[in-house]
Every structure is written in structure tokens, then in C-alpha cells.
Amino acid sequence: MKVEDLVAALGLRVLAGQPSLQREVSGGYAADLLSCAMARARAGNVWVTLQAHANVVAVASLLDLAAVIITEGTEPDAATREKAEEEGVVLLSTPQTTYAVVAEMARLGIPAGS
Amino acid sequence: MADSAKEEQAVSAGRPPVTKSQELVYELKIGEIMTRDPVVVGPECLMSELKEILRIRRISGVPVLDKGALVGIISIEDLIVALAQGDTSARVGEKMTRQVQTVFADESVIQAVTKFARYGYGRLPVVDRSGRLVGIVTQGDIVRGLLRQLDVQWQEEEIHRYRASHIFEDIESDQTGLVLRYKVAARDFVRGGEASSKLKKALERLGGEPQLVRRVAVAAYEAETNLIIHTDAGGDLIAEVQPDRIRVVALDTGPGIPDVEMALRPGFSTAPDWIRELGFGAGMGLNNIKTCADEMRLESRVGVGTRLEAVFYLPGKREGKKEAV
Q: Assign residue B254 a region: left if phi > 0, alpha if psi is -120 to 50, beta otherwise?
């Protein structure tokens, strides 16, 4: 499954990283602590989190994640979105809860990432 | 204003960025991509002979030369018309196009592209500045020329990459090392991860094995984050790249860790609530570094500072090296 399929299936808003939506999703990971994501998320994973600040982009870029889904409508600021564009990180947004997003991803057959 | 800033401005003003092939169309000269020594015929050539020339040489048109001077061009379209009229015994000189559009060998390829678009011809004779025929150019020549040039530039880039990744083989000394030093400011969360991102890119540039680069990047990020969250005045993130190992050192001048053993326990954190709300302070940072590195040392004195060192051995440079994380 590609990131763009996930965007369509979950009705996600693309905040940054439009050119990278063709990327294949290798799995999913959910947590709000950056160090946990650092330790457990894998390259190509989609990371589901409440966090919306610039360090999310840094983590996603360092881990080479396929996308970050920011839940509960949290809005990253303009600088964060700019940084994401610069680093080629896909930032997606949804008003749904992390639980709802993860449940939907599981239903679509996306495996646990770590 | 710097060129790059100008470019950015142009892009943000809605002007699409210039692609590499567009750039090449201006850079390359027609003489570099044309077919040299093209097949030519004289005006006395019979249309039936022309038919054989086109068929055998598998071409669709030829310039017509009379005593060395370009006097016309004749194409397969002209031949088809002559065949339809049963006029195969006519001379090329009677059927050729006399108003020949030409291009100069020292002009940019863009001139040929423009003429192809304007006149719809399949080929253009190429002349030098004295009017002498030196070649012929088709749209196929342009495509092949651009591809060849892209290939050349790609190979140059590959060589460049190769040189960067073989730095340790090419430079001889008793101990070669490359030191990368990054300054990390305290509480600067917005720039958090910048130093480790730069380090990661540098290691990729040096040809580091992806799994190793990933481990170093994760450890460097955690060390950088610790400098941002916990230090009084920031610190230095230093990576020393050696032929057999990468050593990452995070240095600061305080406040220092009162209980190093406690700090190393998974989940132990001294981060205040506001930092935890940003997603930091999981108490897993040092643990992550330990997991990623082959060796880790942490020394600290309250009021003096902390020195964290993580060592990563290059694949095959050490027995029992860690598997990828």
C-alpha cells in the first residue's frame, strides 16, 4: 500500500511532502514520545502521533519514515511544515484520534512496524 | 542577493524551476549532437535512385549539394508525391525544396528545437559560418544528444561520490580521521535534530553503510536532544570518522549528572512537564544510544559537565559486531 492510498482511505489532509506520496508503506507505529519512535519505528513506517512540532520532522527524517499522521486535528506551525517540505517528510493530518487511525490502518492490513 | 536566494524567489513567485534537460538545450551546441558527414545527393540524381538511397541508408531525407554548395533538400514526402505521380524518372533538382532552413553548428540546440517547432521539418542541414554543409540534425539526434550528456554528467557525479566514499583508501596516513563538529544550543527545540541530520547526510555522502548510518543518526539525535534539554549552555556534538569506526561524542559544561547509574535506567527522566509535553523526556534517550552503539561511555561531574561517547564499528571491522537495529 502506498501513502497516497492511505490518504484516500482515511481522508487525510496532506500538510507537506506531496511529492513523496507514491512511497510504499512498510508498517505502522504509534506513540507520542520521540525517543520511543526513535527506538521502535522503522524505515518506511507510518508514524501516528499527537505531536505536531518541528522535532517530529527531525525524527521522521532521521528514520526515513514514509509519513507522519498527526491526530486529533493538532496543527503544526508554518516553520514545521516548511521544514517537512525541505526534508521531504510527508505530514498528514486528521481530526480522528490515534486509536481510530490505528484501527483503520490495521483493517487495511498494514502490519505493526517494529 | 545570492544566486540560490534568487532562485528560491523565482520558484516561490510561481515560475517553475528550470529542469536539467532545459538547461542542456541551451548549453549544448548543435555541432555536438548532429550527424556528421551526412548522405548527400546532387540535383542530377534520379528520384528512382533517391528511393534506393533512402531505403538502403534508412533515412528520410537528404541535403542536395551542387558543386559543394547547399542548393536544396529532398525528403521522403517529396518522393511519395513523385511516386504517386509516376514521376520516378524526374531529377532531384526539379522536386527538391529550394528554400532550405539551416542551423549553424555553433548555435545552441535550442535554435534547432525552435525551428523544428516552427516549420515542422523532420531534419535541418547544419552549416558552418561560411555556409558549408557540415552535418544534419534530426529530433532524434537532439534526444540522443541530451541523453548522452545527462549520462556524462551522471557519471561525473558518480565519480564525485566515489571519491567521497573512498576518502580513507585514497588518503594515506598512519591514522586518518575526519572530525565533524556541530554546536548545539540549549533549549533550541526548533532546531533540534539539525546537527544529527547534517551528520547523517555527511555519513551518507561518505558512503556509510545504511544500517550503520541509521544507528549513528539515532544515537546522535538522542545525544543532541540531551544537550538541548538538559545543559545550561548547550554543547558540542562531535563525530570522528575513522577507517574502522565512528565515534560520536557529546560534550557539555554542566550542570552534570548526579547519579549516572540512575540516569542509565530505562524510563528514568528528569525532564520537566513542559518538555515532556513536547514528546521528550521519555527516559529512553541514553538507553537508545546504548542499544544503537557498539560501546558507550558516560562520564559526568556535577558542576563540571558531561562527556558521552558512543562508538560504532564499521561492518566487518570488529568481531561480534552488532546486528542492525
A: left
